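Quick question, first post here. What does this chain look like in 3D?
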Amino acid sequence: MLRPRHHHYNAIPVAHWCDGDSCELLLDDHLFKCRLIFIDAPEMPQPFGPQARDFALAMTTNRLSDVQVKGVDRYGRPLVIIEPHLSESVNFNLVFHGLAWAYRLPRNKHTPYSIAERYAKKHKRGLWSNPSPTPPWNWRKQMGRSKIHLRHVGDIS
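> Answer (accepted):
Ran it through. Tokens below.
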């Protein structure tokens, strides 16, 4: 059983990437749907959505990862940081390479994620090659939350 809060797991395989910021982890012969914490990657139909997923997949294919569970989201998914063996976290790398936004944390504007996002913007990496990319939270609002959630859990194609 994947513990819901503040737990660390070593040598866990990522079984499947649903998109750039959600995946399924394999633990004790069970799959657990998880969400990467501190970031928001484009949805699959958005520009750079498939690239974010493919980047995360490339970081974790044929590698075991350390997983830090930091909490649970409103859908009951564990919020995680995934660190492939001998690598920085997938979460951080997605932001650094311009494939995700850093969460906006008002009390701390200078997180490693926000610094990585500024770097990606400055160097026009990934989604920042577009002068005004649509953040996924705005895109989801425009498209309607229920359609996106159904797509996430695989109920519609």
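The radius of gyration is 15 Å.
The chain has one domain: 7-146.
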